[in-house]
C-alpha cells in the first residue's frame, strides 16, 4: 500500500508518469468512443443505401415482373411477391409503380393507388436513384430502379427502402457494446499504466527527477574517467553506449552508438561475443596490435537476455606469454595425435607414412622418412647398406626432393649422414649456407633451395640401440627457420614413431618367419599317382599365418589318400602345430589304416601334445584342430571318408549334380575318448571330390550354410577339369580381406581299366604255386612286361608259400599294372610277416629278404577279415602307363 501511495502522490518519477499515462489513456478512450459511434451510424446508413438498392434491382429484374405490370390487375400479382421480398430482405417497403408513379404495391394497402413520394425521373430515364426523403412512413432511405421490357423500354418502377429510425436503432444497439469495450480498455490501460509506473518506480528506486539527474551526472563522470572500456548493448546487439576507453581500444567510429556490432568493423571473434550477449570472464581477443581481456554480463539480473554490459582492459603485455602457451598447447596436441594416429597397423611403410602425414603441414612443409632396406623386410638395420625413401608427404607434390622408393646413400657430411652416424638430431637452419648438405647432390640441392626450402631438421629413428633410418623435416613457406625448441619437438615426435616402426619391423620379421615355416611345411609338389587328377590352391590369411594344411599321399594297391586340416589360431605356434600334424599323418598313413582309425591315432597325438605343453603358460592348447581324411581306390572306385570336426567334402558328379555326402562328424582333434566313424562312397569315374577348410565357406558376416550354398553353385557352374573348378570356386568367394586361411583340393577320379587287373584264387596246395607262376608269366607277356617275369614269379612264390604255411584260406592273388607293377597276396589270417636275417645254418627265413631285395617297396595292409601282403616293382622305361 505504501508503494501504491508513493506512486499516486506524484512526487516520484513513477507517479508523474502514472498520471500522464492515465490522462492520455482517458482522452484516447473518449475519442475512440465518439469515433466508433459516428462510424457505426455512417456504416449503418451506407448499409441501408446498399441494401435498398440491391433489393429494388433484384425485384425489378425478377422473372414475370414485366408480365405482371402488363396484366389487367398488377396489384393482385405483385402485392404478395413484394411483401414476401420485403420480409425476406428485411427492408421496410418494396413498392412497384407504373411510369406515372402510381403505386401497385405497398406494406400499407391503403397507400396502393396513390402517388409515390420521391424522385422518379432518373429511373424513367433508365438510371437507378438512391435518396433520403420524408416518406409516408417517416424519414427513410429509398432506391428507385426501372423495370424494362425485352426491348429496353421502361414499363414500370420498383422502389425499396429502410426508415432512418431502424438505421439509428442498429447504431444505438451497438452503443452499449462500444461503451463497454471503452470501459474495459480504460480499465486495462489504467492497470497497464499502474504496472508500468510500478516497474519504473522499481527501476528508479523511487527517485525524483532531481535525484535522477544528479545520479546520471555522477554516472557519466565515472564512465568517462575510468581507464577500462565499458560498452552497453541491447538484446539485438545494437551498441547503446561506449565510453572513451572502449572507443580507443576498439577504434570505434564516431557514430558507433546506435549501430549493430556487426557494422563496427570488429574482428569476427569479438563480434560474435558482443552480439551473443553470453557471459564471459577474462576472455582474451587479439584486436589490432593489442590483446584485450573481455568481461561480459547480462544487464538483467534475472537472467533474461535484455542486453549486456561489456568491460574491456588492455593486456598487450601478456602477448608473449599467451603465444608461448598456444605453441605449447599445439605441440602437446600434435604429440597426442602422434600417439593415437601413428602405428595403427603393423606395416612398416604405412607407419612411416602416418608420421609424414601427421607432421605436414602442422610442423613442417615436407617430411621424408628413409629406412634401411633390411628394416623393410623385418631384419636388423645394416649401417653399411643403402636406405630407401619409404614415405614422403608435403604441401606440394612437385618439390624436387627424392621420390618415394628411391634408394639413397647419404654422404657423411650431410645432416642425414651425421644423424645416422651419431644417433643424434641435426638442425640446419639455412640450407643455402650448408655445404655439407649440398655435397649430397649439388644439382638437386640447388633445385631444392631454388624451390624455396630453406631449413631442415634430421632425426634418427632409434629403437633402443638400433638406428632404423632417418626422418627429415623441411620448411619452405614459413620464413622463420627451425629453432631449438622445434628440434626438441621433432625428436619427441620421431621417438614415438620409432617405437611403432620397430614393432612393425618385428612383426614383419615374425610374420615372414611364420610364412616361411608354413610354406616349408606345406607340400611344394604333388606326388606322382594315376588314381586322381588333382588341382589345389592355398590362400594365406591377410591378418597372419594360419594353420590350414593339406596333403596327397599315395598308398599301396594304387590307392591315394587326400587330407586337409585346420589348426585354430595364427602365428608360429599354429604353423608349427600344423607341421607336426602333417608329419604324423604321413607316418600313420604308412600303416595303411582306415580313415577312422587314423583320425583316432591323430586325436591321441594331439592330446599328448597338449599334455606336454600344459606346463608352459605361454603356449595355447591345440584343441580346435580339425581334419578330413579320404582314401580312394581306383580299382573298386570306392572312397572311404572320415572327419574330425571338419566341414564335409563336396562331390560333383559327372552328370552335374553337386552334393555334400553324409559323413559322420567326429569331434575336433584333442578332445579324446570319442570314436571316429567312416563313410563309404562309390564314385563314378570323372567325379570331382572337393576338400576344403572352413575359411572357404565361413566368415564373420555369414553362416556356414550360406557358404556351402555358394560353393554348391560354383561347382555346378564350373568346368570339368580340377583347375577350372579351383578357379570357379575361388572366384565365387566374397571379395574383401580374408580373415582365415583357405586350403582347397579338387580331385577328379579315374578308374584302373579292367585289362590292367589280374586276379587268381589259389587253393591251399603247394602244387598250385607252379600253376600260378605260369598264369603270371602269361599275363606279364600280355602286358609287355617280360623283363619283370623272373622277379615277379619269385615274389609271388614266396608270398603265396608264406600264406599257405602261416596264413589261412582263402588265398587270393592280384596283380595291378599301374605306375608300378603291384603284386598282392590276400589270406584270412591277421598274423603279420616279419623280415629277418637267416644265418648260414638256417633252412628258412630268407623269403621276405628276397622279396625286399627284388621289390621297390613292400608291406602289409590289414582288412576287416585278414590281411594283404603287397610288393611294388618299378616298370621298365619303355612300356606305356595308365593315362
From TrEMBL:
Residues spanning the membrane: 17-38, 175-196
Keyword terms, alphabetized: ATP-binding, Cell membrane, Hydrolase, Kinase, Membrane, Nucleotide-binding, Phosphoprotein, Transferase, Transmembrane, Transmembrane helix, Two-component regulatory system
Source organism (scientific name): Streptomyces labedae
Coiled coil: none
Name of this chain's protein: SpoIIE family protein phosphatase/ATP-binding protein
Alphabetical list of SUPFAM superfamilies matching this protein: ATPase domain of HSP90 chaperone/DNA topoisomerase II/histidine kinase (SSF55874), GAF domain-like (SSF55781), PP2C-like (SSF81606), PYP-like sensor domain (PAS domain) (SSF55785), Sensory domain-like (SSF103190)
All copies of domain PAS, residue ranges: 217-282
PPM-type phosphatase domain location: 529-749
Origin: domain of life: Bacteria
Cellular localisation: Cell membrane
Main localization category: membrane
Membrane topology: Multi-pass membrane protein
Lineage of source species: Bacteria, Bacillati, Actinomycetota, Actinomycetes, Kitasatosporales
Positions of the GAF domain: 343-511
InterPro entries tied to this protein: Bact_Sigma-Reg, GAF, GAF-like_dom_sf, HATPase_C_sf, HATPase_dom, PAS, PAS-like_dom_sf, PAS_4
Stored CDD domains: HATPase_RsbW-like (cd16936), PAS (cd00130), PDC1_HK_sensor (cd18773)
